[in-house]
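<instruction>
Derive structure tokens from the sequence
<data>
Labelled lines for chain and fold:
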Amino acid sequence: MTVQETPQATPNGTPDAASYPAFHPTHGVRNPGTALELDWVRGAQVNRSAVERRVATLPGRRTVKNVHQAAWLLKAVSCIDLTTLAGDDTPGRVRRLCAKARRPVREDLLEALGMTGLTVGAVCVYPTMVPHAVRALSGSGVPVASVATGFPAGLTPMPQRLEEIRYAVAEGAAEIDIVVTRAFVLTGDWEALYDEVRTFREACGEAHLKAILATGELGTLRNVYKASLVAMMAGADFIKTSTGKEAENATPEVSLVMVRAIRDYLERTGYEVGFKPAGGIRTAKEALLWLSLTKEELGRAWLEPGRFRFGASSLLGDIERQLEHFVTGRYSAAYRHPLA
């Protein structure tokens, strides 16, 4: 399968989804995975110049202003995995983050916008912080996600990585963000990558698995596409760009390649997989770019937290500032919108 040109579009500019299976919002039908199709993986090609041309058209193709921009930004808030993955995390910091997750935008702004009950998509923390997050979010409907498997490098022994998953799930994590072994991608050992992700998926049980590909360390866009396919074949519920710790994190180019892989996998198997760009997405303008890319490539159905997430810590503050500007006509200082 070659990643090259823009999909067939409907008159309003979105892909024709007539042949797509019914979309299941939030945590519905999962991707069970498939057998490893090595011919498909090894034969995959990516046209970098076509990817770059497509990405270059996005800012001009999709511009939203005024009330439409406000609506898109509220949608972005609902798709944020509000994250703290710092070495100095404390239970108190996690509780403050969870309070922000419950009420991500100031009540006066939501009232002016006619919105109620808005929350983020999830809160993402280290495994030891999961029980604190679960207690703080009790009754809110906001799931807790945990990184695992030796995040961010993923180079701890397999028994420890599996035990980390089991610990987080036992403490109440509903989603597990695993990291793959980059060496399997760089050496083309697709069987080993498939077996690794499949094993992680089994350890997750009912918890949903997000496979972090660490795209900034995979070398080529072709490797990104192939790794995306293998992770989905192994049963990943989401594929995620980055840990946020690499020198290069989410970019529009790798994101385009990954959502094309999701679309190709859907068309071939009928199974839906979510997409999570993470790392370096800090402004409302950038959030709109990723939303528009996903909508144009996968359709409106993917703009829901069950199929799209931002991995972010500082993005929410800028979105809230933009929403205040829409409501009041004035920009506020960043300190008026504390994250936690």
Summary: The CA atoms of residues 215 and 281 lie 15 Å apart. Strands lie at 2-3, 45-46, 80-83, 122-125, 144-147, 175-179, 208-212, 238-240, 274-276, 310-312. The two ends are 44 Å apart (CA to CA).
